[in-house]
TrEMBL record:
SUPFAM superfamilies for the chain: Tetrapyrrole methylase
Protein name: SAM-dependent methyltransferase
Keywords: Methyltransferase, Transferase
Keyword Transferase: yes
Species this protein is from: Pseudoduganella buxea
Keyword Transferase tagged: yes
InterPro entries: 4pyrrol_Methylase_sf, 4pyrrole_Mease_sub1, 4pyrrole_Mease_sub2, rRNA_ssu_MeTfrase_I
Taxonomic lineage: Bacteria, Pseudomonadati, Pseudomonadota, Betaproteobacteria, Burkholderiales
GO molecular function, one term: methyltransferase activity
GO biological process: methylation
PANTHER family (UniProt xref): RIBOSOMAL RNA SMALL SUBUNIT METHYLTRANSFERASE I, SAM-DEPENDENT METHYLTRANSFERASE
Length: 244
C-alpha cells in the first residue's frame, strides 16, 4: 500500500514558537515523518527544529529526507518526488508559508498523487487568504484569489478595473498579492484606479506580532496616501482585497 501525502501548514512568518498557529496534533504528526517535500530544504529544516522543541523528531534532522519542489521543478520530476510514497512511506508536503498547494507549487504534486491513488490528507493551519477574508469585513460568501497582478503600470490598471467590474457585477470579493517590495505601488494603483466607494482591505503580517489589517474605501486610501499615512507594509507579506 502507498503511504499518505500529508499537507503540512507552516507559519506565515518568523516565530520562536509554533504553538499559537500550528495545532499540537499537526506538530505531533509532523514529528513522526522522515520524508518531506518542501520549497526550500533550509527553511524546512528550520521549521522542523521548531517542531522538535516540543515534539521530538522520529530521526535526527540530518537523517530526514527533504526533496525540493519549487517554481524551477520540471513537470517530469514530480513522479520521482512521489517515489517514497509508492514505497510505503508517509510524506509531508511542507509549504514555505501558510498552507500547501494554495498559491503554492505543491498543487501539481497533489494532483499527481490523486492520479496514482495516493491518499492525500490536508492538515489544519493558517491560510493568509482565508484569514484576510475573515478579517476584512468584505463578502465571505463569494470570493476569488487572482494571484499576482501585472507589474506594468498600464496593464495593472486595466486588470484592476476588470476585477472591480467583476466584483460589482457578481458581488464578489477579489483577492491578490504582490511581491512585498512593491506593496506601495499596488496600493497607490488600487486607490487611483478604483471608484471612490470601492472597499479595499490591506492585510499585512497576518498572525504575526506586527499584524495590521485595515479596510477603507478607495477614496479614503487615496487621502491617507496623499497625507503620508499609508500602512507600514514595505517588504512585508500582504494580502489585498477589494469589493465594489
Amino acid at each position: 500500500m502507498p503511504g499518505t501525502l500529508y499537507l503540512i501548514p507552516n507559519t506565515l512568518g518568523e516565530t520562536v514558537s509554533l504553538d499559537h498557529v500550528i495545532p499540537t496534533h499537526v506538530q505531533a504528526l509532523t514529528a513522526q515523518l522522515t520524508h518531506f517535500v518542501a520549497e526550500n530544504a533550509k527553511t524546512a529544516r528550520a521549521f522542523l527544529k521548531l517542531v522538535n522543541a516540543s515534539h521530538p523528531l522520529a530521526a535526527p534532522l540530518q537523517e530526514i529526507a527533504i526533496a525540493e519542489l519549487n517554481v524551477n521543478t520540471k513537470a517530469d520530476a514530480l513522479a520521482g518526488l512521489l517515489a517514497p510514497l509508492l514505497d510505503g512511506h508517509d510524506v509531508g508536503l511542507l509549504s514555505e508559508a501558510g498552507v500547501p498547494a494554495v498559491a503554492d507549487p505543491g498543487a501539481d504534486l497533489v494532483r499527481l498523487a490523486h492520479v496514482k491513488a495516493i491518499p492525500v490528507r490536508p492538515l489544519v493551519g493558517p491560510s493568509s487568504l482565508l484569514l484576510a477574508v475573515m478579517a476584512s469585513g468584505l463578502n465571505g460568501q463569494s470570493f476569488a484569489f487572482n494571484g499576482y497582478l501585472p507589474t506594468d503600470a498600464a496593464a495593472r490598471t486595466k486588470r484592476l478595473r476588470e476585477l472591480e467590474t467583476r466584483s460589482r457585477q457578481e458581488k464578489q470579493t477579489q483577492l491578490f498579492i504582490e511581491t512585498p517590495y512593491r506593496n506601495g505601488q499596488l496600493l497607490e494603483a488600487l486607490a487611483a484606479s478604483c471608484q471612490g466607494g470601492t472597499l479595499i482591505c490591506v492585510a499585512t503580517d497576518i498572525s504575526l506580532a506586527t499584524e495590521t489589517i485595515r479596510t477603507r474605501t478607495a477614496a479614503q486610501w487615496q487621502a491617507a496616501l496623499a497625507a503620508g499615512q499609508g500602512p507600514d507594509f514595505h517588504k512585508k507579506p500582504t494580502v489585498f482585497l477589494l469589493l465594489a
